[in-house]
């Protein structure tokens, strides 16, 4: 029971909200949480093509300027740069801040 | 529609193999190793934006055509460069059948991402060979890839390679031979296997991803660890505000170096040219031929060639930025700010290439997915001062700006002025992009999803080869286009000869003089004299020629002592400062380059945009030069 709520709460965190140094695991992709003008399904596919897929471990390596945007994220063996606006579509479970 | 008639009975002609893979995995390096070509290799995604062909003879004696393609993450093709790859691989080009075999190139250090495309390619039902590239880096990072296991898991032959060292090329050639042999024997019995590729859904992509994980578990001994050095370097270069400052300092150093590093070789070339001219002056009888050689060729072509060292310094910097892996970082750092004017961070890459020449810069804009973003980037590319304008800038700077140290002796004034001119181009480009994006080119902002490649030490061989190619191209141009133009200009400036008892210099009576005097009233409001008017017209074919024309025109109009001065000295003597400033301003915008306009037409498949570019930039140039001339004249009180 408790773990379930814990999970649910964690699943509410998006990659777009994380700060530099945070480590997490991707639990879901939810396009509706991001601001995008792409066709439905397109952002999700692009994210997967760049390795941002359920189960992947990520770490935020660098933040841009100003407003800490975009971010550079370590995903598996590559480093991907993306904007927070799109990173909001990536739901994560925090591992370490 | 894809042709799915399997292996068509083709007329004689070498079999073709296509190199396909993610961006920056070493396809072009492999292409060069296979064919001996020297296509551009650099450390950022999107270097290759066109289809390129080469030939090699396989160990079995077959002539094979290799096709190098732009990198892509998927055959779904989101940008024009990826469409090139898709169309070749799926046989959608009208003039070309599907390639007989595909060599999938993967970066062994980034298999997780790279293998997904390989699975997609397998669906095509074509023979596929996997080139497991960058094995040297994989080894040094302790990634143990078992090629045999990988081959078993993927169901295709796997050949480890190190493309830049030509390692593994022989085994790859042997494998290509075997694969083509099998394909040929199957091709005799017409194969009707349909193309099994269809656009993958998100669900398909997830399935591919899971499959990749299974394969990796099977074939990769130790999980890959990210490149540590890259992370350390980035923790300095990608700091939020400081990172931007470092980027600016780098660009600033580049312009300082253009002056300071090139000074000595330029003086040497100048000395050499003067010596030759002196020898001809002394040893040849006066006459048209002597005038053609000294005034037309040495005065014209020579005054362009002298700038080769500066152009090479500029290219050296650009090459190092490209080879090191910094380009993608610059795009990352600038994304937010470029977003402010409605441009994509990635636009930095085509725009920086435009400092070399707008033509490849405009082609590099193919990597920008969104059409309105792409058009905006293309429209401002000519405002990034190209290397052909460098001679114009530095000539005027040398003539009018004193060689002085400023800011506490740290910075040379000429370098500072040069930086300011480049900055003026960049800022007006951004302003124009801003206006375009608010008015005619409105549209959604494309997401930024970009890999940051691992840093690599630029390889001296690659850098030197690149510089050699540039120098060669420049000299060939000087020896052909510019030479021919200069001979024409010299003739126009020498004939008809002055009438008996003429009071003005002979050139005033020549055709060039007449053209110049005819155009002069048009350009007088912006402070241009008739000599400049003459220089602007041939400058459309090659901008450096403007400098050459001034060289010839002044060589022909002056006599006696002034002849012995350098062109810069002559200009300092005969132009006012407002005229010089106005001329510089003109060249910040100077849109009159035929090559640029025609590549815009081709890339955008429209006459409208190049026309708009020509008239828009010409009016800007005129307006800005007018303002500069008037303000400078008022300030100086002339
Ligand atoms: N260490 C190492 N570096 C390599 C190898 N092959 C290529 N490179 C480097 O990888 C970078 C990319 O090489 P390219 O050949 O331009 O890659 P590409 O796949 O053609 O890239 P795009 O045209 O952008 O799709 C360059 O910096 C090369 O020097 C290799 O086997 N080992
Ligand atoms: Mg390439």
The best one-word shape of chain B is elongated
* Counted beta strands of chain A: 6
What is the helical fraction of chain A, as a range of percent?
Answer: 10-25%
> What is the CATH superfamily classification of chain A?
Ferrous iron transport protein A (FeoA)
Please tell me the overall pLDDT of chain A: 84
Major sheet details of chain B: 6 strands, mixed
Could you explain how this protein is built, in words?
The complex is a heterodimer of chains A (97) and B (638). By secondary structure, chain A is of the alpha+beta class. Chain A has one domain (5-96): SH3 type barrels (Roll). Chain A is built from three helices and six strands; from the N terminus they run H-E-E-H-E-E-E-H-E. Chain A has a six-stranded antiparallel sheet with strand order 1-6-2-3-4-5. In chain A, strand 3 (57-63) and strand 4 form a beta hairpin. Mean pLDDT of chain A is 84; it is low at 1-10. Chain B is of the alpha/beta class. Chain B has three domains: 16-219, Rossmann fold, CATH 3.40.50; 248-438, no CATH class; 486-636, no CATH class. Helix content of chain B is 59%, strand content 6%. Chain B contains 26 helices and nine strands. Chain B has helices at 27-35, 80-89, 111-122, 135-140, 147-154, 169-188, 202-219, 228-237, 240-260, 263-283, 288-305, 308-324, 326-340, 348-356, 358-364, 371-380, 390-400, 413-438, 460-494, 511-523, 530-536, 545-557, 567-574, 577-589, 594-604, 608-636; strands spanning 16-21, 52-57, 63-68, 101-107, 128-133, 158-160, 405-406, 411-412, 449-451. In chain B, strands 2-3-1-4-5-6 form a six-stranded mixed sheet, sandwiched between helices. In chain B, helix 9 runs antiparallel to helix 12 and helix 9 crosses helix 18. The longest helix of chain B has 35 residues, at 460-494. The termini of chain B are far apart. The model of chain B is unreliable at 1-9 and 560-564 (pLDDT under 50). At the A-B interface, helix 2, strand 3 and strand 5 of A face helix 3, helix 7, helix 8, helix 9 and helix 13 of B. Strand 5 of chain A pairs antiparallel with strand 9 (449-451) of chain B, so a sheet runs across the interface. Guanosine-5'-triphosphate binds next to helix 1 and helix 4 of chain B.
């Amino acid at each position: 029971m408790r773990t379930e709520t814990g999970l649910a709460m964690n699943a509410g965190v998006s990659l777009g909200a994380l700060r530099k140094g945070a480590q997490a695991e991707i639990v879901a992709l939810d396009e509706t949480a991001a601001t995008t003008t792409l066709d439905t399904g397109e952002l999700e596919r692009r994210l997967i093509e760049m390795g941002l897929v359920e189960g992947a471990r990520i770490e935020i390596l660098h933040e841009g300027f100003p407003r800490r945007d975009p971010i550079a994220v370590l995903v598996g063996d590559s480093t991907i740069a993306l904007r927070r606006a799109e990173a909001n579509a990536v739901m994560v479970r925090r591992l370490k801040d | 529609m894809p042709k799915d008639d399997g292996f068509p009975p083709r007329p004689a002609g070498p079999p073709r193999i296509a190199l396909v893979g993610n961006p920056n995995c070493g396809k072009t390096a492999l292409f060069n190793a296979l064919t001996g070509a020297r296509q551009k290799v650099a450390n950022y995604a999107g270097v290759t934006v066109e289809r390129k062909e080469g030939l090699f003879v396989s160990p079995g004696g077959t002539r094979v055509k290799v096709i190098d393609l732009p990198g892509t993450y998927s055959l779904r093709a989101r940008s024009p460069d990826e469409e090139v790859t898709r169309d070749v691989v799926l046989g959608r080009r009208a003039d070309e059948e599907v390639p007989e075999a595909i060599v999938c190139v993967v970066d062994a250090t980034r298999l997780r991402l790279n293998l997904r495309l390989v699975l997609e390619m397998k669906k095509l039902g074509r023979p596929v060979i996997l080139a497991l590239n960058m094995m040297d880096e994989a080894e040094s990072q302790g990634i143990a890839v078992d090629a045999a296991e990988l081959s078993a898991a993927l169901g295709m032959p796997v050949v480890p390679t190190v493309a830049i060292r030509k390692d593994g090329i022989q085994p790859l050639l042997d494998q290509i031979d075997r694969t083509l042999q099998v394909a040929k024997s199957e091709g005799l019995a017409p194969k009707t296997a349909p193309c099994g590729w269809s656009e993958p859904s998100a669900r398909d992509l997830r399935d591919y991803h899971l499959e990749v994980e299974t394969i990796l578990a099977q074939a990769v001994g130790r999980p890959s660890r990210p490149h540590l050095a890259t992370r350390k370097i980035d923790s300095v270069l990608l700091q939020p505000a400081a990172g931007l400052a470092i980027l600016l300092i780098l660009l600033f150093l580049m312009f300082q170096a253009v002056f300071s590093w090139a000074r000595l070789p330029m003086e040497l070339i100048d000395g050499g040219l003067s010596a030759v001219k002196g020898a001809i002056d002394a040893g040849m009888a006066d006459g048209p031929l002597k005038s053609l050689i000294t005034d037309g060729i040495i005065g014209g072509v020579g005054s362009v060639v002298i700038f080769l060292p500066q152009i090479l310094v500029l290219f050296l910097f650009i090459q190092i930025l490209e080879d090191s892996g910094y380009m993608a970082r610059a795009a990352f750092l600038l994304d937010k700010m470029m977003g402010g004017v409605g441009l994509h961070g990635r636009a930095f890459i085509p725009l920086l290439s435009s400092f070399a020449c707008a033509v490849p810069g405009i082609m590099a804009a193919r990597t920008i997915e969104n059409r309105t973003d792409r058009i905006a980037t293309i429209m401002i590319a000519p405002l990034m001062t190209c290397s052909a304008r460098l001679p114009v800038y530095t000539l005027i700077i040398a003539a009018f700006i004193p060689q002085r140290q400023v800011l506490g002796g740290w910075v040379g004034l000429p370098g500072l002025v040069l930086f300011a001119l480049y900055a003026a181009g960049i800022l007006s480009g951004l302003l124009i992009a801003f206006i375009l994006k608010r008015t005619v080119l409105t549209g959604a902002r494309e997401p930024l999803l970009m890999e940051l490649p691992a840093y690599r030490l630029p390889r001296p061989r690659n850098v030197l080869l690149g510089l050699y190619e540039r120098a060669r191209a420049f000299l060939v141009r000087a020896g052909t286009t510019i030479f021919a133009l200069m001979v024409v200009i010299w003739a126009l400036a020498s004939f008809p000869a002055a009438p008996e008892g003429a009071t003005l210099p002979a050139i005033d009576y020549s055709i060039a003089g007449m053209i110049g005097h005819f155009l002069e009233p048009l350009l007088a409001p912006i402070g241009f004299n008739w000599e400049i008017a003459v220089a602007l017209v041939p400058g459309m074919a090659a901008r450096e020629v403007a400098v050459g024309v001034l060289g010839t025109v002044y060589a022909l109009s002056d006599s006696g002592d002034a002849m012995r001065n350098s062109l810069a000295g002559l200009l300092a003597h005969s132009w006012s400062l407002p005229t010089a400033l106005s001329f510089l301003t003109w060249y910040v915008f100077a849109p009159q380059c035929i090559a640029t306009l025609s590549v815009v037409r081709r890339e955008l498949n429209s006459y409208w945009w190049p026309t708009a570019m020509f008239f828009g930039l010409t009016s800007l140039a005129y307006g800005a030069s007018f303002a500069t001339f008037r303000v400078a004249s008022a300030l100086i009180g002339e």
